[in-house]
Structures are given as C-alpha cells and as structure tokens.
C-alpha cells in the first residue's frame, strides 16, 4: 500500500526524461518544418506513421523506385491507383507529372488533405467504392495490404482485380508469396523494398508483367 505522503509515487528516471524531452523537441521541430515556407505536403513523413493502423512508410529510395516503375508501367497518360500505399502516392505527386494521373485509396482519413484524389477505402469492404471509380480503369494498381494475413490479401485482391486493366504491383511479406500467386497471379521480384524503419518481416515486391524491378 502506498504512503499518503506521496514518497512512493514513481518518478521518471533522468534517462527517460531526457528521451521524452528529445522526442517532444523533435516533434516541435517537425511541426515547425510543416508550417515553415516550402514545406512539401507530399513528402514522405509529412503525415506520420500510425502503428495502430499498421502503417510503415517506405524509404525515400524505395518509394522513388516504385513510383518510377508505376509511371513506366502505366505509360504516357496512364492512370495509377495506390491502394494502401500512400508513400508511393506521395512520391508520384512529388514528381508533378503531367503524363499520368494517380489516386490514393486509403483507410486513414488524414490523407483526405489530398482532395479529390483521396478515396476512403476499407479492405473489409473491397468493392465498396465510389461509382466514378469504374472497373478496369487503371493501367496499373500498386497495393500494400496493411496486414500479413490471408484474409486481408484476399479482400485487397478483389479491389485490385476490379480496378486494374491488367498490371499489378503488390508489396507484402515474403511469407505471402504463395497466397499472392494464388490470388493475383503475381511473381516475386528481385527488388527488395526498404522501409524508413526496419520491419521484423521480410518484405518483397510481386508483379504480373515484365517489370523493371528485376
């Protein structure tokens, strides 16, 4: 039982306090960057990861590589859909490309700051999509299902197959290789995607066309 005089109230160690202060300082600096002139709303990290939503952003190099692959695969004037892959969407927007159009299907409503290109998406309802999102209207669909589960991949696959004219670029765990082939007919690529934070699970890319990722 604790004494009433408060002597036993747990105190934060100096190390923990220092770490907390550093965290808050970094957060303030980030907020300061966001409000300062020249802040790019499309830069990776402008919207921070929410681990509760199983969000892990790609490294800058990986996002650039996947965005470039999507542009080439979509072709001139092509349409690209990013399903649960916001960092690729951001990198595509950074390119300010006039030769392609892109939209982002995402559960996290923070991405609604991107206006009409944002489409709220819940993989549990894979075909609950706006009427103006016509079937087979995208030259390539890039998808990164939020969870490494058979159910999540199956449902996301329904969305992908509805949207794509044919080309699919899937990013998910190496352990999902068999399921990815079964649900989407995709094969693993040599290219290994990296994230801004190291993930416990080995991550890979899969495609169903002759890509530049090999």
TrEMBL record:
It catalyses: L-lysyl-[protein] + 3 S-adenosyl-L-methionine = N(6),N(6),N(6)-trimethyl-L-lysyl-[protein] + 3 S-adenosyl-L-homocysteine + 3 H(+). It comes from the Eukaryota. It is found in: Cytoplasm. Keywords: Cytoplasm, Methyltransferase, Transferase. GO terms for cellular component: cytoplasm. The keyword GTP-binding does not apply. PROSITE patterns: N6_MTASE (PS00092). GO terms for biological process: methylation. Its main location: cytoplasm. GO terms for molecular function: nucleic acid binding; protein-lysine N-methyltransferase activity. HAMAP family: Methyltr_EFM5. This is EFMT1 methyltransferase. It comes from Eolophus roseicapilla.
């Amino acid at each position: 039982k604790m004494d009433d005089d408060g002597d036993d109230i747990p105190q934060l160690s100096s190390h923990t306090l220092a770490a907390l202060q550093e965290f808050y300082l970094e957060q303030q600096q980030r907020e300061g960057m966001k409000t300062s002139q020249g802040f790019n709303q499309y830069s990776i990290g402008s919207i921070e990861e929410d681990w509760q939503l199983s969000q892990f952003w790609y490294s800058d190099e990986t996002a650039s590589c996947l965005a470039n692959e999507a542009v080439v695969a979509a072709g001139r004037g092509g349409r690209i859909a990013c399903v649960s892959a916001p960092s690729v969407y951001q990198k595509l927007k950074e390119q300010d490309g006039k030769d392609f159009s892109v939209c982002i299907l995402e559960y996290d409503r923070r991405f609604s700051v991107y206006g009409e290109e944002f489409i709220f998406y819940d993989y549990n309802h894979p075909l609950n999509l706006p009427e103006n999102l016509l079937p087979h209207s995208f030259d390539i669909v890039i998808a990164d299902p939020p969870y490494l589960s058979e159910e999540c991949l199956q449902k996301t696959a329904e969305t992908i197959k509805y949207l794509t004219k044919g080309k699919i670029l899937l990013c998910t765990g190496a352990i999902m290789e068999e399921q990815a082939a079964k649900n989407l007919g995709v094969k693993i690529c040599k290219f290994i995607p990296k994230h801004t934070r190291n993930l416990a699970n080995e991550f890979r890319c899969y495609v169903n066309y002759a890509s530049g990722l090999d």
